[in-house]
Amino acid sequence: MTSIRQLGKSIAAEVVDIDLSQPLDAPTQAQILDAFYTHQVLAFRNQKLTPEQYLRFGRYFGELEPFFLSRYNLENYPNIYVLSNVKKDGKLIGRYGAGMHWHSDHTYQEAPASATFLYAIEVPPEGGDTLFINNYAAYESLPEDVKQRIEGLRAIHHYHTQEHLYTAESSVSEEMRQKIAAHGQEEGATKTVIKQSQTEIPDVTHPIVRTHPVTGRKALYLNEALAIGIEGMPEQEGKELLQFLCDWAVNHTELYRHKWQVGDVVVWDNPSMMHTGTFTDPKYPRTHYRLTTTGSVPY
Ligand code: SIN
């Protein structure tokens, strides 16, 4: 068994004095899962993990799934997806600039990811934090008439690549945006916020109010970039309602900011949270290994 230290007022906790390179016994696994569903985001500091040890830890939370853009997966480890701004021989070693908007992971899938893990390999001395908010609290804080308006509505989720130039934090100067664009050039960066890409992934719809498959609690289920409209609603009206809900969630709930240290492992619960990456100056290397577990169809 281990001990849990709360990080935020209502979300996020650190699991202390634990070495994830060792197998965890059943009571410790149960304690961690319980803390996960209570605090929604868990941090483990100072870990030194081989890919196999990291994968073993991930499997305590469910079945792992590979990221579909396989060119970013760690060689010989299809379930480990590399996020990085580091280039070797002029090529990025991982996906650059992913997730720079408020979202839950893989909402373009019929059964989107359940847990996501990031393991910090290289971190910048400043910037590159990951931010989290609580979508149970977002739903619960909505005025009654809004709750009634959105009951039963489904958002349309459409996969497209995100652009590197804009982050959820708006303080990035034009000069810096240009630097980031130049750094990510091989990824096709442009000056538009979102660049449509040709993909074979069909659109899916998900309820805007989701019942958590484990806790049974209701939460908003949103994705600021990939939810492009609401089924059966005029396009503009749908977009405006989705943006209103996203802004509401960000402005009416506690935000937990994770400042990374090398060796941190952080895991979060996608059905009840949104998160976003933030700006990293491309002169500083930032690399994380990411895992996701298979989720269920939202209802
Ligand atoms: C993600 O949203 O998957 C990445 C977030 C981050 O890199 O901080």
Structure description:
With 299 residues, this protein is of the alpha+beta class. The protein is built from six helices and 20 strands. The strands form six sheets. It has an eight-stranded mixed sheet, with helices on one face. Strands 17-9-19 form a three-stranded antiparallel sheet. Strands 13-10-16 form a three-stranded antiparallel sheet. The chain is globular. It binds succinic acid (SIN).
Bound molecules: succinic acid
- Helical content class: 10-25%
Identify the overall geometry: globular
Q: What is the number of E strands?
A: 20
Largest sheet: 8 strands, mixed
Mean pLDDT reading: 89
What structural class do the secondary elements suggest? Answer: alpha+beta
Can you summarize this structure?
With 299 residues, this protein is of the alpha+beta class. The protein is 21% helix and 27% strand.
